[in-house]
Batch of 3 targets.
Target 1
Amino acid sequence: MPVINFKYSDLCTMLGEDVPQETLIQRIPMIGADMHETEGDCDDMSVEFFPDRPDLYSVEGLARALRAFLDIEPGMRRYDVGDSGIEVTVDPSVKSVRPYFLCGVVRDVEISDEFLRSIMEMQEKLHITIGRKRSKLAIGIHDLNKVEPPFIYRLAEPHSVRFVPLAMDREMDLAEILRENEKGRDYAHLLDGLDEYPVILDRNGDVLSFPPIINGVLTTVTTGRHDLFIDVTGNDRKAVKGALDIVATALAERGGRIETVIMHDGDETFLSPDLTPSRRTISAEECDRFLGIHLGPEGVSECLRRMGMDTECDGDAVTAIIPPVRLDIMHDVDVFEDVATGYGFDRFGGPYTLEQTTGGLSPLTTFSEDIRDVMVGLGFTEVTTLTLSNEREEFEISGLPRLDVVKVLNPITEDHTCLRPYLMPSLVRILRHNKHRDLPQRIFEIGFVVRDELTKPRLCAMSTASKTSFTEIKSLTESVLREMGIEYQLEPCNLPTFVPGRGATVKWNGKDIGMFGEMAPSVVVGYEITHPIIFMEIDLEPIVAEKRGTLF
């Protein structure tokens, strides 16, 4: 999740009052964040925000949200938007590459070193999150005083345009940038297969940006008072507009004046940015029922104002007037969530004890825990293995009866081509990976296999040592079955898995529920093990279903 770093003193300056640091540490997580550890009397603070709130990816956005949340200035923050008179043209040639392009101007922005770092961090976090590492959108922020409008966004041949990219000291053409510049190499894949590349040019043909790769050094933003030009290009108009609104309003929080530009996009002419809020009407009664509290229309409105929205009430209907930076509001339940946040998650519910709960462990879990205690008491170590396996180890090497398996459609490796029908091969793999360790090794697993496209619980225990015997594994199996409290019968097993005469089948109520014995030398060698192995595997499903009620 995105982490923003800021100064406590700077945040208080933007809030307009000195809020105790301890209050901020307690309240900021309530709007959907993880507060990183902050040492006492330390001016540096760090907050990790949930991905659904890109408007909070800067201290400017956080301050705007906290002014409402802490009841300093509840309601929606509105910005005066002027007209820059600047015209921007979107050439039809870009429609097949990155079709959406929106711009804006913010004037008289006083930029300090700290604010400059904040801008750069916000820009990069938006690139990574809603920008999907610039594949969905890319943002450019430019010193407007160094270029001359109008601007045009068009395609250019790779060798026809030259400029000095950021962090470089010589002119390069577009193809050279993709080959030699660090950012060019990082993002060149976004332009794979194109014969022409997008560029943003001013009246004189000077390059502002080569989106989504890199800006030109000409419009580099430095400290001091500047007029800024913002451009956002991308493949999703909603995301492009949202990113522009977030950046422009963040700059306005520092005292800048937002101005629109005239966009000429094909047959369409419009002003950008458009900070008109959206509206969504909800039922206060439905919201109360959804949250399990009683607020009524006025209470719902109060909570939404604490989340930076304005509201209008008409009986039970509450209309939320939503700021353009709130990209996460897409459904009524999103508004309900904001009501809950504004109400305070710390105010929900009350003390809970275990006696108040109605849930409990399933019979299978209870039974499995009892068997675990038995196996640990017998000197075995529990392991957990992958459900994925392969038919070669499940059947060809093991000698176990072949069954229909659920196959992986596009397996990444030859070791993981199906879902396992037995536990034994999975445990042998554990021994194979640990064959250089001291002996004896005794392991067990209570896990699921997949048979007839259903998951089935089984127990498998395995031991390898310099010397093993059928008597040892028979005693172990009978001890476990005795602890399960079942009456069983043993019959010889002729599977090639076992040494002839040293394998047995476990029967219960006339059904085969398991097997045990000494593993045949050919099987041991096939699994690349160097010492003898004994094992047992028991089907737990019928036992649990009989003793604890039907589960499956």
Target 2
Amino acid sequence: MFKTFLAGTLSGMALVVALRGAEPGASVVLIYNARMRESKNVANHYATRRNVPASQIIGLDLPTGETMSRTEYRQQLQQPLLKFLQQNKLFVYPPSAAGSEQKDLKPIAASIRYAVLAYGVPLRIAEDPSLADPGAEGIREVLRRNGAAVDSELSTLPVLNLSVPLAGPQANPLYGCLHPSWLDPTNGLLLVARLDGPSAAVARALVDKALEAETNGLWGRGYFDLRGLTNGSYKEGDDWIRAAADITRRFGYEAVVDDKPETFPVAFPMSQIALYAGWYDLNASGPFTRPKVEFMPGAFAYHLQSFSAHTLRSTTQNWCGPLLAAGATATMGSIDEPFLDGTPNIGVFFACWLPGGYTFGEAAHASQRVLSWQTTVIGDPLYRPFGKTPREQHDALAQRHSKLLEWADLRYADESLVLGLKPGEVVQYLLRPDVPQDSAVLAEKLADLYLMEGQDELSIKAFRRALKLGPTPQQRVRLTLSLGNRLVASAHEEDALALYDDFLKKCPDYSDAMDLYTKMETLATKLGQTRRAERYAREIAKLTGGK
């Protein structure tokens, strides 16, 4: 009864998702750099995986670096691509368009909606202060720049005889649009994204991971890193990320929200990442600098920072390159200073992508207030992991006896709490025989639910059980810390000491060993175990450079 009630509610919430089918590769024009073999290889791989017609693939003679001049952009990319689209009737303009002086003319028909730029297509159009730009004097001086992200500039390609100046951003008339079908060249917008990253291998894998998540679902946890702003002009950035976290939670996903001024510390146990949004470090930091980042297949990760995509060729500089190298499937970023209003509204993105069921390309462009500016979109624009209802996803995993079923059941549990069911009712669901009982993910949820009900001993038992069920490395860290806190709170100090000792023996490279040794010294002193406390004190001294 519980499962039937919850499934019906979720299916109703996801009605818009269920009504839309998968979008084919025939809706894509695929562009690669003819000077780079790797670029063509990435394009061919994407075309094979997404069934892009050969007649919709074009190789262009482009610079091989990440930057191109405005002249190179116009003569080597913009004009040849537009000619290709018209010759192949992918864009159809009114017969009067040829030689017309009419401004801002749009196609009357378009058989493609997306442009995919393969690894090797330049990332940015360089600033050119010598360029004549009538009308630019009417733009605020701080925005009077004609440099732009190639992706963002190309998104305006359908509009002929564009009347606005090159300098500054253009308003996106389809920002926040409620119907994804409106995001179309006939309305003046081309959905542009790139398969890119620090290497061609990383770029090629983006479509593979997207397809895996479309087949099996995008599962895992959401992490949201606010700055704790309560006023000022930058508060809007916090509001966007907070909205994204709230949408994620209401959609039935675990959502961890941090509102401290600093970003997540390196020791933070960020496990099984499906979704991440945060700000504001110059370069990838915290958990994203670890040798292994626990991104789930299909994960979306976004860090709001003015130069987050200044280069995509680095695994350490800025954010987009490192996130992609670490395993993220999709991201967005800025190639140059966009100012806050010129960055995607990540709350709108989450609303469109999750409950709205938009493709990644649709959600990315619906979340941008401006175009012809600094945003680049990296990932397969057709990627749509939420194209099935929760009921459909759950049943498909159950039929295949997939290990991922644990995540579908976790989503049922979390969604039920949002809908107002009591923790005890959710516990009864998770203990049903048709729910996996060998899951560290669900055992941890049981521990949390028992804790919500004030049943400390049952919570401790569930945490211990979760630790025996093969958690991921970072989930093990979180389980250990949570169990240790419960043991101390329940006056099981000796058990807490044993737990911490065992953990540090198994994980000697734990990055916050100092914190654990400090807790252990305090506990040992409280228990009157002097020698043990002295041993922990010596370990602390070693970590701080003492003798």
Target 3
Amino acid sequence: MLSHLHIQNYALIAHLDIDFEAGFSVLTGETGAGKSIILGALNLVMGGRADTHAITEGEERCIIEATFVDKGEELLIRRELNRNGRSRSFVNDEVVSMAELKALSTRLIDVHSQHQNLLLADSAFQTEVVDAIAKNTRERQAYTAAYEQYLQAETALRDLRTTADKAQHDADYMMFQLKQLTDANLRDGEQEELEQEEYTLSHAEEIQTHLSEVLETLSGENQSVLQTLRGLHVGEASQELQDRIESCYIELKDIADEAEHLLSHVNADPGRLEEVQERQMLLQTLLRKFNCSTVSELLKEQARLEKQSQLLEHFDDEIARLTREREAAFASMAKAANALTQSRQAACQPIAERLINDLVRLGIAHANMQVVISPAGEYTPTGHDTVDFLFAANLGQSPQRVADVASGGEVARIMLSIKALTADTTALPTIIFDEIDTGISGSVATRMGDIMRRMGAHRQVIAITHLPQIAAFGEQHFKVYKQDTQVRTETHIRPLNRTECIQEIAALLSADNITETALKNAEELLNK
């Protein structure tokens, strides 16, 4: 539950600390006193949108802190908003993201304001109400798992069909490309070999001349280097030197042999040169066409096209397999959806009876409620159902959708009844009602206050109200008021003792013109 709220430099609030207790608490105050400001601050600390205009004029930042007691442990949530627009959030002094803060707040508190009455036009909200009463978590989880599995199967089949259609459409061109690469008989590394061979063929005569010169110098008949080295002997002067001469001879003899071998293979062959150049032109054409830089990349593209061509042969089998998987997933989803529908249908009558009882107590003597479940047009994340709450206020009227026939006051009473109904089945420890009593008065307000008080027996309920009949039920009563200082107007809030409660309720009864009669009536309301 919410145990403490600290507000600093937020709108008209310079500094505020409120301690809340368990049970049913009420906040009252004149219109414009700042009740909505307190709710705005609470909304901010629970992850609402930050607006720098909310910072008190002249201040650089505002701080909102909410302390919750959850399962015996204290939880401190703090939100800081700076004038520069920067916002930070903390849970027990650890920084958290907005998503984390919002997820946490949904488990701690439910703020119901007048605009939430519009939820009665939302089938998804009505579905959540039915599920809360049906306690069908197991069925919902089973359906969700089956629904997600079906979506995966449907997506896989759709993607494969798209790929198959595109592949079939491109098949002719793809096979043409593959044939080009296959016919080319590509070989990794041949690009470099061709470049070397082209150079050799293009410079054959020059290379022959150089090789002949090398060969003549090393092993020619006229005083060659090898002959000279063979004739050199240093005797016993230095065996090491003799070995080195011998080593030089062997190395130069090997060079001469290699030169002779190269010379025998270097020929000016215009035909072969033309073949090499044509092959290079083919490779360059393929490299440009397939946007590759090496023959190795061309071979990879060839492998990819070969794999794709093989897939074309198996698309029909794969599509048939995925179709069977999708059909099986659909059957499982439909079965889970049917179980979920049955759980909801079982809860419809108890929900309608409970709501009728509360609405009669709230002054709609001939209230008639029905919860109708009909098949949805398609399977959705929440099932295959459309849930509608139907309502009639008078005898002889056929129940229609609540949003179509209920007045503002009737909608408020229906929403309160729904909150009271679901409060016993949800884990939310705190519920705040923001002027849910709009359009209500007299004995109906008294009964509404009684419902809130009974809700407060099991969880914390806080109501912002302008009705004395509801305020009288508060186990804790706060007054929100404005006070002028020398520089500005400020909003304050303070708890009231019994005497002050009588004064405040009397003010609500007599529009601030407190009379003895109003005081007596206020005391009677409190005594009840």
